[in-house]
Amino acid sequence: MPESSSAFSKLAFFLPIQRRAVSRPPSHAEGFDSGINSSTAWTVSLNTPEGELRKSQVEPSVNVDSLSDEERDPGMESADEDADLLSERGRPARALYGFQGKPEFRELTHVDAGDELEIVKEDAGEGWCLARLVASRSGREGHQGELGLLPSTYYTYTSDFAVNPELDLSPSKPRRREASDSTITPRGSPPRQSAALPIVPQNTGEWFPSFRRSLLGGKSLNRFSSFVTSGAEEWVLQGTGEEPAPPTGHAQEASSSQRGGESNRTSMLGASVEVERHFVEAGPAWRTKVPAFRVLVHSPSKRTSTLSGAYTMYALTSIFEAPPDEESYEDGEAEEQGEVKTIRLTVHRRFSHFVALHTALTRQLPGIVLPPLPEKQYAGRFSDDFVEARRGDLERYINRVVRHPVARYAEVLTFFLGCESDWEWKKQLPYYLSLPPKGPSFYAHVYHPAFNVDAEEAAEAGERFASHTRAVSKGVQSMRGIFGKVREARIEMSHAERLLSYSLLSLITSKPLAAAPAPGISEEDEEDADKKRGHMNEDGAWCWREGCEQCLKLTKALQKTSETLQTVADLYDDHARRTLLATHESLKSVAHPSTLYQAVVDTHDSTLTRYREATQEGNEDEEVAARCETVLNTTMAEMETYHTQKVEDFQDLAKEHLDGEIAFYEQVLARLRTARRAFDDPQYEALGESPRQPSLYERELENPRLFPTPLPQPCPHVFDSAPMRPVSVAIQEGVGLLLGGAGNPARTSVFGKFW
């Protein structure tokens, strides 16, 4: 990686990152080791020509140079390519686990562990491969030669292995796990006899994410559970070829970083800090390695590119609290707040850059929960209301990312918030997007106390957490609807205050209110109202006597009251449209914890099942149980993270709402008190010194402002949608909308209206 800009280095002081060379991930390596539960032992053979690693499919990368917010949808393979795959002869393989597929999804209907397979296409997308069943180990007939989809992690190649006659297959008793001397225990995979290949995680990308979220309520089209797609299953069953180094040195470095000093600064800026190691402390809870900070998204501006047209650019300002013994940087912007120095760093990003960041974080941190990005917008992207709503959504998104104790120090996030050089941005972003998903290697770098998981307590915690998040989701959704009614009530209150103001002004000026004629008075009487003598004198006082000072003071005080009511009506309207709208938008961030953490719950439950199997008496498996403990520590640390964030979120929401209400009513009270003082001396006495001037609102009596513009609503959350329905039903209804339903004459099609 080339030297970063000074601002980028400054940000690296607060977010320690591990420098690494700019290079593409290796597409091949030497050596492979695996095994299956069968009567034949297989060992690695590195000298055979078949021992070459199969080429991995490269995922479609995000076009980082494009200035458009739109992304191309993944294309489907042609029919000619499918025909070639049917006749192609694949590589021999053997099934590791049993699999029951569904014919309607073109999956292999029945596969047993040990069946002979041919892998025709290794990466068929969504974590599947295209395989042919050659021979069934159980002797089943009727399925030989069947071609269909099979999960990518359910087989192993046999052309890379040879029988090792010297391998001892005698049964042995399972080893008893003993407590470690260290409080932090790395959960690695079993030791390998030779160098192992890096794992190429499966592609678990989603098809048409915007369509999926809006139509299917945020549910994935992938039939795999998150236990599979995150790499947790592969980690539990097979481990990973990456052997983590002892964490002792890193733990010492982390503790010294909290003490500060010149040596601390040198170690932070050096390449010795490893950001890929994640520590779980007692709780379990993630260890905080980097101090918390916040990010402001502000100053949106419209820009134009010759390549993709117009787009919106946002300024991102990261705010850090500098250590008291550190001096401010010469090129940085620092301000003192008491004894604490604040460092600010500003970069400019667009929505497609946030998409790239989210993609990279999802691949590099599969075991943690990331907030969803706001939906794309294809129409009205440059309206003031939408730009402000998008700015707020992006600010909430990035702040929820940086407050996660693990995502906060991710290298790609540091780069995203600190890179000010356009040249370095265009050069480095493709590197981060080209990195393969971590998959099981993420769990290989999670360290936790030894044997700190109890299966029964973990199961109860998972059930309580799932029940709690479902209740929170339902309750917040109800509160969001009620909060919308509260905002509508403020608009109704504004309408009532304005109507009262007009009525009072009409009373003292004898000008009728056009939208509210007085009951019991005919139109002829209204036309002659101005001709009636004695309603107002020459001074504009509400009296039939000329020169009446008392009525003049009363009229002017009532007029001031009417004008104050107009101001109060404006305050109600502005409060509903601006202050309450911001709180209404903030409720989205806590609206769907059940959907957001469903992957954690699924992984937690599936891991517990594997853990019970591995610790069952007479069938113990030490290594699988150890790796299950790592995954359970990860899921329970995520539950603890949600607990901490929930407390912070609802505290902030309650304080924000109450502060807004207090400020609003204080403004109303201040104006009402001013109008009230007009009836007391000396203000009341001074009103009789000059004639009454017409009110600014008298001209509105003929056309009063009693019909305000519609109340702006918050942009919907990505999980706000109708209940999930099959895609075929949605497509059928869409076609029926265009062509009309044959069995329902009342349902007119779109084309039928034009016909």
From TrEMBL:
<feature type="compositionally biased region" description="Acidic residues">
    <location>
        <begin position="67"/>
        <end position="83"/>
    </location>
</feature>
<dbReference type="GO" id="GO:0016197">
    <property type="term" value="P:endosomal transport"/>
</dbReference>
<dbReference type="GO" id="GO:0005886">
    <property type="term" value="C:plasma membrane"/>
</dbReference>
<protein>
    <recommendedName>
        <fullName>PX domain-containing protein</fullName>
    </recommendedName>
</protein>
<feature type="region of interest" description="Disordered">
    <location>
        <begin position="239"/>
        <end position="266"/>
    </location>
</feature>
<feature type="region of interest" description="Disordered">
    <location>
        <begin position="48"/>
        <end position="83"/>
    </location>
</feature>
<dbReference type="InterPro" id="IPR036871">
    <property type="entry name" value="PX_dom_sf"/>
</dbReference>
<feature type="compositionally biased region" description="Polar residues">
    <location>
        <begin position="253"/>
        <end position="266"/>
    </location>
</feature>
<dbReference type="GO" id="GO:0031410">
    <property type="term" value="C:cytoplasmic vesicle"/>
</dbReference>
<dbReference type="GO" id="GO:0006897">
    <property type="term" value="P:endocytosis"/>
</dbReference>
<keyword id="KW-0728">SH3 domain</keyword>
<dbReference type="InterPro" id="IPR027267">
    <property type="entry name" value="AH/BAR_dom_sf"/>
</dbReference>
<feature type="domain" description="PX">
    <location>
        <begin position="292"/>
        <end position="423"/>
    </location>
</feature>
<dbReference type="Pfam" id="PF00787">
    <property type="entry name" value="PX"/>
</dbReference>
<feature type="domain" description="SH3">
    <location>
        <begin position="88"/>
        <end position="160"/>
    </location>
</feature>
<dbReference type="Pfam" id="PF10456">
    <property type="entry name" value="BAR_3_WASP_bdg"/>
</dbReference>
<feature type="region of interest" description="Disordered">
    <location>
        <begin position="166"/>
        <end position="198"/>
    </location>
</feature>
<dbReference type="GO" id="GO:0035091">
    <property type="term" value="F:phosphatidylinositol binding"/>
</dbReference>
<dbReference type="InterPro" id="IPR036028">
    <property type="entry name" value="SH3-like_dom_sf"/>
</dbReference>
<dbReference type="InterPro" id="IPR001683">
    <property type="entry name" value="PX_dom"/>
</dbReference>
<dbReference type="InterPro" id="IPR001452">
    <property type="entry name" value="SH3_domain"/>
</dbReference>
<dbReference type="GO" id="GO:0097320">
    <property type="term" value="P:plasma membrane tubulation"/>
</dbReference>
<dbReference type="InterPro" id="IPR019497">
    <property type="entry name" value="Sorting_nexin_WASP-bd-dom"/>
</dbReference>
